[in-house]
Amino acid sequence: MARRKHSSVEEEAQIDMTPMLDIVFILLIFFIVTTSFVKPSGLDYNKPEASQATKKPSANIFIGVSKTGVIMMENRQVDVERITANVERMLAEAPEAAVLIQADQEAKHGLVVKVMDNVKAAGVDKISVSAGDE
């Protein structure tokens, strides 16, 4: 009789891994599906090449300038005149923010300079222009 009792104890000691594997696969599917819906924000643009381009730390304020003259901030189109007010508002939230201007290679440099002037007028000292392989 002792043998029967001993063999039933061994059977109870086994752990069923099936529910844990089901949960892991469900989480895997969830993360795969949710990451496929993430759409990068901003404009599609071709950055100009620069031989002296260096990597800068991540900026807090992004401004995109397309080759057609469209200016984007916070995933919305902005006029050149409204850049100063928008940057001032964003600086109130994050006083140490830096600005990164992502301009298309074919964007008019006059427009990019106006954007830079308006950012400077808002009181930002750290302005970077995206170029090369950043």
From TrEMBL:
**Keyword terms, alphabetized:** Cell membrane, Membrane, Protein transport, Transmembrane, Transmembrane helix, Transport
Q: Which residues cross the membrane?
A: 20-38
Q: Where is the protein found, in the record's own terms?
A: Cell membrane
Q: Kindly give the membrane topology term recorded for this protein.
A: Single-pass membrane protein; Single-pass type II membrane protein
Domain of life here? Bacteria
Tell me, what's a Pfam family for it?
ExbD
InterPro entries assigned: ExbD
Broad class of where this protein is predominantly found: membrane
Protein family per UniProt? Belongs to the ExbD/TolR family.
Protein name stated in the entry: Biopolymer transporter ExbD
